[in-house]
Amino acid sequence: MTSSAGWGRPTIYLDAARQRRRRSLVTEIVLRALEGKLRGASVRCGIAGFGDAGTVRRESVLPVVQHLPAEIVLVDDMVVLHAFVTRLVRMRGVLLATLQPVEVVDNPAGVGRDCQAW
Asked: In which domain, by residue range, is 69 found?
């Protein structure tokens, strides 16, 4: 059930190589989203990117390049997400977080309501 604020989609930008408590920061955030019973989370890992430093990092076939960009995209109620993202931005390693309102188009067949259906 959603609030009157509607649905939202935060995107969390971070360095895929970052660690927190001896595990990947990406994994840590996705597990927190799962524990918080958010409706969905997806991770996209980039093959190239740059940030404030202006240094382009890209995937290479020779030495494994560290510090590739990653995005974590979540979907849920805007109020729930705002609270979740507020806690995340205090974590070291989160470079940027955005929160956008989105329109959820319900699938009449119900596909996409449950990740296990995928």
From this structure: 7-103
